[in-house]
């Protein structure tokens, strides 16, 4: 099929490249000239395992192209995906300016009937608005049929998720469009659910809100475990064995971050509020997450007393491993709190230093060497469970730190491993080792 993708951010780029990999002819468009120029040279503007080789492969076989000119991209397209950003407004609502602009550009550019398929996470009713905008500039008989097709890709495993997702949701009132979309996705052999547009839009928010709820729930249980002397790892394993609960998203830690959960949970609270429903459960999920992000520094203060002039290693800046993304990362909250307490911070990350520097500037030091980060420090706080951190030998902490205290915000080490080292080890929801 001939496909166009509007927006070359995380979702748009992975969608476009993977659709080309499936054999479709894809043109991706973006308003940002420098991004398109970079992509045209076969380089990816985002850090995502496996993406660049797939990008190069599909450009060289002629199935994938990039342009800043939307008319070129949309001219012969049978399906146009909208995958532009929906950033958060100050009041927590989703900002739909890019969506509306993309709809308008589609309206003025298309010359044939087309399916317009929204991948971006958008509040209920947005696809109807998209249709309205397109029709206002390109009235019938030309037809633009809208479809809501939310994405469930995780950063760092986006390609795997595209080809092995649990389900594909196709939301539209048009049977014909639904069956075209189904045909396009059929080779992936992923269960396809066809539904109405509004339900599809809601499925995306409800999925992310539910996953965030699981995380805040397990973090609450971890807090109680610490007080009653239980071990959260045992508890999470035990409850996850129940098929009705499931083992996933029960990893306790210093909270969820990233570009999706924080933004989408807040947006869903707003969506509920707009129809006069107070989403109390989700409001608590969000509150618990703020508390969780502050936990590591509280624990550091408990053990060190004042943090003034203390040297603290911050291990991990990305909001999770295998990404360079620091949006809403717990590490940023921790770095700022440590600075407020008067500590000196030296941060390690294998991929996210450049992005963290954009937010934190030179208020902290950075290094790509864990050993350098922990040298002569009073405490080390683990904020991201990178493999490099998980597999870093414990004896080096004991050897290099001024006082070997690890506050492990991601429970990277087993308590058993710690028992043979002279290290004070404080983790989340597990007994401390002192
Ligand atoms: C999330 C969803 O998992 C995807 O299905 C969805 O498509 C995506 O948002 C989106 O809406 O675009 P992502 O934000 O990339 O994906 O990352 P996750 O792997 O879900 O992790 C999010 C945060 O939750 C991370 O900070 C991670 O450390 C934290 N987390 C995750 C936990 O604290 N505990 C867990 O058990 C799992």
Automatic annotation (TrEMBL):
Top-level lineage group: Bacteria
A GO molecular function held by the record: UDP-glucose 6-dehydrogenase activity
Signal peptide, first to last residue: none
The UniProt record lists the keyword Oxidoreductase: yes
Cited Gene3D superfamilies: Cytochrome c1, transmembrane anchor, C-terminal (1.20.5.100), NAD(P)-binding Rossmann-like Domain (3.40.50.720)
Family the entry assigns: Belongs to the UDP-glucose/GDP-mannose dehydrogenase family.
The protein, known as: UDP-glucose 6-dehydrogenase
High-level lineage: Bacteria, Bacillati, Bacillota, Bacilli, Bacillales
């Amino acid at each position: 099929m001939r496909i166009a993708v509007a927006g070359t951010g995380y979702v748009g780029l992975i969608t476009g490249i993977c659709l080309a990999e499936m054999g479709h002819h894809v043109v991706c468009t973006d308003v940002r000239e420098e991004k398109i120029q970079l992509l045209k040279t076969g380089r990816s503007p985002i850090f995502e395992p496996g993406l660049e080789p797939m990008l190069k492969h599909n450009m060289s076989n002629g199935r994938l192209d990039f342009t800043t000119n939307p008319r070129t991209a949309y001219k012969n397209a049978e399906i146009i995906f909208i995958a532009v950003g929906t950033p958060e407004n100050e009041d927590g609502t989703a900002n739909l300016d890019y969506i509306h602009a993309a709809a308008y550009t589609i309206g003025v550019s298309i010359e044939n009937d087309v399916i317009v398929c929204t991948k971006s996470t958008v509040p209920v009713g947005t696809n109807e608005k998209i249709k309205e905008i397109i029709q206002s500039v390109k009235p019938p008989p030309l037809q633009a049929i809208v479809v809501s097709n939310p994405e469930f890709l995780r950063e760092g495993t986006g390609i795997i998720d595209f080809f092995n997702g649990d389900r594909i949701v196709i939301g539209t009132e048009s049977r014909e469009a639904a069956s075209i979309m189904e045909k396009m996705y059929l080779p992936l052999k992923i269960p396809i659910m066809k539904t109405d547009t509004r339900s599809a839009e809601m499925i995306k928010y409800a999925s992310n809100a539910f996953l965030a709820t699981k995380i805040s729930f397990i973090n609450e249980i971890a807090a109680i475990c610490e007080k009653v002397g239980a071990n959260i790892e045992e508890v999470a394993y035990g409850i996850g064995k129940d098929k009705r609960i499931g083992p996933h998203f029960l990893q306790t830690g210093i909270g969820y971050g990233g570009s999706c959960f924080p933004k989408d949970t807040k947006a869903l609270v707003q969506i509920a509020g707009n129809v006069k429903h107070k989403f109390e459960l989700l409001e608590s999920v969000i509150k618990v997450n703020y508390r969780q992000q502050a936990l590591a520094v509280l624990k550091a203060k408990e053990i060190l007393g004042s943090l003034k002039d203390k040297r603290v290693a911050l291990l991990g800046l990305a909001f999770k491993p295998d990404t360079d993304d620091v949006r809403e990362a717990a590490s940023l909250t921790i770095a700022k709190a440590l600075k407020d307490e008067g500590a000196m911070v030296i941060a390690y990350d294998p991929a996210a230093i450049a992005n963290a520097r954009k937010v934190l500037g030179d208020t902290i030091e950075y290094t790509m060497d864990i050993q350098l980060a922990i040298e002569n420090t009073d405490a080390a706080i683990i904020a991201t469970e990178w493999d490099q951190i998980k597999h870093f030998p414990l004896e080096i902490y004991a050897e290099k730190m001024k006082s070997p205290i690890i506050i492990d915000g991601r429970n990277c080490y087993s308590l058993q491993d710690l028992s043979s080292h002279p290290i004070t080890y404080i983790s989340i929801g597990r007994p401390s080792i002192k």
